[in-house]
Each structure stands twice: as C-alpha cells, then as structure tokens.
Amino acid sequence: MHMEDRKLVINLIIDGIAYPLTVKASEEPYYRQAARLVNNTLSLYKELFTGEEGVRVMTMVALDIAFNSVKGENNSNPVELMRKINELTRLVENTLED
Q: What does the pLDDT look like over 2-16, one tens digit per residue?
C-alpha cells in the first residue's frame, strides 16, 4: 500500500460539531481546507441571516460554495470536486437530521 493510500481517521469540526471521517492520507489536507471553507462561509451567512437556523443557512452555504466552484474558482478536477461536494452535502444533511 502506498503511503498516500493509507487511511486516516480524522475529526473535522463544522459548526462546533465533530465529524469523524476515514480518509486517504493524501486527501486529509483537502478535507481540512474544505471544513475551514464551510466554517468561514457559515459564519458569514449566520451574520446575514440573523435568527435563521439550520436548513436555510446551510443551504446558502452550500449554494455559495457550489457557485464559486462552478464559476471556476476551484475547478481543477470537476469530477473530484463533485464527489467532495456530495460528501459535504451528505454530512450537512446528516447533521440537520439529528
């Protein structure tokens, strides 16, 4: 097994909640960067939508990040990007269900 194929268990903190994930070692920095992006974007939308909770705010976060990706600000590998967006969306949906 190559070092980059090695699996790691990491904890990402998104909106104050820990999400344990098993990821490839080579992808860990991208997951951490994505979590920072989600948290930063979430902070902005929480300020804009004061008093709003949950789905509405997270929907705007997802839309903002997806828009910037589609626009081309992070469009080096669209298939991989869509996979990561889908994973993050699944995490958000699971959180909102709890």
A: 666 799 999 999 999
Residue 3: C-alpha distances to residues 8, 11, 61 (Å): 11, 20, 33
SS3 call for 53: coil
Own/partner pairs, 61-68, CB within 8 angstroms, 24+ separation: 61/92, 62/88, 62/89, 62/92, 65/37, 65/38, 65/41
What does the pLDDT look like over 19-29, one tens digit per residue?
999 999 999 99
Residues paired with residue 8 on neighbouring β-strands, in sequence order: 23
